[in-house]
Amino acid sequence: MILIDGSDGEGGGQILRTSLALSLLTGESVTIDNIRANRPTPGLRPQHLAGVRALGEIGNSTLVGVSLGSSRLTFTPGSVAAGSYAFSIGTAGSTALLLHSIYLPLLLRPTSPSTLTMTGGTHVSHAPTFDYLRYVWAAWLERIGASISLEMSQPGFYPRGGGVLTARIAPGAIRDGLICTTMNRPEGAEIVSVVAGLADHIAVRQAKRAEIVLKNAGIRSTSRCETIAGGTGSYIHIRFPESDVPNLFTALGERGLAAENVGQAAAEAAIAWHTAGQPVDEHAADQLVLPLALADGPSDFAVTRVTQHLKTNIDAIGRFLERPIVVEGDIGQTGRVRIG
Hints:
By secondary structure, this protein is α/β, with parallel strands linked by helices.
């Protein structure tokens, strides 16, 4: 039995996701205490509860202490089975983080494909959006030999949720590590500004502010505005389609926040990445370190910013795998990750 203190490091939900996925992959039982101890509302929230139960279902596992608000659970893994699964979070909890919880066991263990249909939030704060999953996360995974296709049939915004994300996972080993230490700075960006159930001018205002901020930083851009059906909300994302590495930067609208501020936030995030000149953004870094720790080959990649999130994830991985992972650089600064 591996014992994990959920208050270590960042003390959030990532320790839970990584530990349970590795429990299924290694066959090691795990007890996690102090779950999400460093969050304003500690313990299992609906999103995390859905992830734990989903891992239990795909892995025919035994769960003890799994209930809303629980701060301690024990997970005894079984055998992972491919199939068609449907999971509902029941709130606007992130479908992306639910997918992050369960995709690796279904990718690496069965010999047949799986389909996951997840209902919840697709564009919510403190989580990857559907667009980030499609343009960045899935593209990085494809680069290291994993195949996951994604579809959003309906968006889901806070507080109502109701978004539907479908992921199709083709089984197979991750044979390639990631060697990515340099990048060519792209000259142009693509802005997509979206509204659902709101006035069209909100999307226009988001896009115009993003264009101005990028122009002032010397980055040319094109933009388009879209109106989509389902839910009520807005968002904007900025891509660099000519870049040699995947990248996308998003900001979400919220009640009381001016549309111009949404556009500015996305543009500033894009400029920070562009200025840093490092290929792997801070969010992709901690999402990639787990599959790369399971890859056949070594990895060496440069990151825009070293985060506590990244270091916490590496510490959790080290409880299950004897794989050397070294981070160079201080938290908040550019850095480099090497996996032997």
